[in-house]
Amino acid sequence: MNIVLFSDTYPPEINGVATSIYNLRMTLLMHGENCLVVTTNPYNDKVIYEDGVVRVPGIELKQLYGYQLAGPYNQEAFEYVRAFKPDVIHVNHDGGIGQFGFLCASRLNVPTAYTYHTMYEDYTYYVTKGHFDRAAKSIVRSYIKLKSNQSGEFIAPSAKIKDYLRSIGVDGYVNTVPTGIDFSRFMNNCGTKEDALKKRAELGIDKDDFVLLSLGRVAKEKSIDVCLRGYAKYLKRGESRPTKFLIVGGGPAIDELKDLCVELGIEKQVIFAGAVKPDVTQYYYRLGDCFVSASVTETQGLTFMEAMASDLIVLARYDDNLAGTINDGKTGYFFYDEDDFKDRLEMIVSLGETEKKAVLAGARKALEPYSLEAFYNNVMEVYRRAIRKSW
């Protein structure tokens, strides 16, 4: 089958959607399907084609992590899509490239699938700065309902997203297709223990330190400040073991969080490692003992699953979206606020080896539904349904 994936974000950009599209493309190719990706070009102002990826130039949105915004149509890129002779077009984003995908499908009379990856209502403040935010959220909801009616097949990556879509009035059929992850990258070949100890030393982490790890985009909606406040309360209680809080990632909230660390008096315990390339994140997971997150804006929680595959205990703020993956006390742990974070962290640091091994084994078992094989089978069934609808 010839499949074209349209997305406004793709590696080398680092975010959940980019990772999802990359994983989808890789699993399609591994199973013998033909796949073309159309995305933005962060390198120059030309349309470029390389290794099955068409990159379309745009303008940089500095207020949105430097994302590129391409126009809704590009004739040169369209010719690449036409020559590919797609059987189905899968739109995965809603910027210029996403709209370009729908236009290509219309011009070529090709069936479509559309995945709603991002809870846009959680991001309207980047545009509104708090002004007329209610109106902006209403516009987002109207747009989503419109796209649900225009798309041949509508996909939600989690039950949380499907429930949200139902709550805003989307009444068409919604396929729930969790993103697949190549867990082998995190389980195997991640360097030796000596490599990890050397990197920890470079970052100022002692070999006996218990390391709390936050890995991903450093932005307001990720609520890293909640974890830092809880960590500060833990430190005030008195440590049973020395700890460090390692933040890996880049984003607009770094300076704000550094100031918060000074305000809380924990700047010596918190390390900002900066952004890293997607293909080396598995090595950074190996530096931690406990993965922590207070984000409740995740549509699936890929970093949580990557951490679980990397044998980290997960401590996450409770979110319905994670309830199917994290079984409290069995595959990881939930907290509800800063005080609860402090208490849960103290318990995790003091876990015995037997208890820790049981949780890590449960976490590995919980990842099975998110394998690349399951992802491939689920998404191909959606594509076949979209094609049948157009007969």
Low-confidence stretches: none
Number of helices: 15
Question: Roughly how many Å is the radius of gyration?
Answer: 21 Å
Spatial sequence of strands, sheet with the most strands: 3-4-2-1-7-8-9-10
Portion of residues within helices: 40-55%
What is the beta-strand fraction?
15-25%
The total strand number stands at 16
**End-to-end C-alpha gap:** 16 Å
Instruction: Based on Cα principal axes, name the global outline.
Output: globular
Determine the mean pLDDT.
89
Written account of the structure:
- By secondary structure, this protein is α/β, with parallel strands linked by helices.
- The chain is 42% helix and 18% strand.
- It has helices at residues 16-30, 75-84, 96-108, 125-128, 133-150, 159-167, 184-187, 193-202, 224-237, 254-264, 281-285, 302-309, 338-349, 353-366, 372-389; strands at 2-6, 34-40, 48-50, 53-56, 58-61, 67-70, 88-91, 112-115, 153-156, 174-176, 210-215, 243-248, 270-274, 290-293, 313-317, 333-335.
- The chain has an eight-stranded mixed beta sheet, with helices on both faces. Strands 13-12-11-14-15-16 form a six-stranded parallel beta sheet, sandwiched between helices. It has a two-stranded antiparallel sheet with strand order 5-6.
- Strand 1, helix 1 and strand 2 form a beta-alpha-beta unit.
- It is globular and about 65 Å long.
